């Protein structure tokens, strides 16, 4: 298995799939980064989101998408820090620096 996995999430429908992928990759010793954008930022308000943040090595969301979905950017989701309210550069990091890439 690859040593690192980047997961790019654009849909709010796949949070539990993301959690399953992260668990499987971590069980195999992989480093995992997850980035949520567009309507997938709604996942940041799901009750299971904080657990995902603890499980993955790095979780961030697109702050611009979060704002466009109607959220206040000062309302930082549980499990994240202000620094994890990020830009699309996080997507670029996944593409450039991770061995495997999945888009959901």
What order do the helices and strands come in, and which of them pair?
Blueprint: E1 4-9, H1 15-27, E2 31-36, H2 49-55, E3 58-62, H3 63-68, E4 85-86, H4 89-97, E5 100-103
Parallel strand pairs: 1-2, 1-5, 2-3, 3-4
Overview of the structural elements:
- This protein has 104 residues and is α/β, with parallel strands linked by helices.
- The protein has one domain: 3-Layer(aba) Sandwich (Rossmann fold), CATH 3.40.50.
- Helix content is 34%, strand content 22%.
- It has a five-stranded parallel beta sheet with strand order 4-3-2-1-5, sandwiched between helices.
- The mean pLDDT is 96.
Number of strands: 5
Task: Characterize the overall form.
Answer: globular
Count the domains. Answer: 1
**Regarding CATH, which class?**
Alpha Beta
Q: Strand order of the main beta sheet, please? A: 4-3-2-1-5
Poorly predicted spans: none
Number of helices: 4
CATH topology: Rossmann fold
Summarize the structure.
With 104 residues, the chain is an alpha/beta fold. 34% of the residues lie in helices and 22% in strands. Helix 1 (15-27) links the parallel strand 1 (4-9) and strand 2 (31-36).
List keywords for this structure.
104 residues, Rossmann fold, 5 strands
């Amino acid at each position: 298995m690859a040593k690192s996995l980047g997961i790019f999430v654009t849909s709010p429908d796949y949070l539990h799939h993301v959690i399953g992928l992260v668990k499987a990759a971590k069980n195999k010793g992989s480093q995992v980064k997850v980035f949520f954008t567009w309507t997938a930022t709604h996942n940041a308000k799901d009750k299971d989101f904080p657990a995902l943040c603890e499980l993955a090595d790095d979780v961030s969301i697109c702050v611009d998408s979060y704002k466009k979905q109607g959220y206040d950017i000062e309302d930082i989701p549980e499990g994240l820090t202000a620094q994890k309210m990020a830009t699309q550069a996080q997507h670029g990091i996944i593409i450039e620096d991770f061995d495997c890439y999945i888009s959901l």
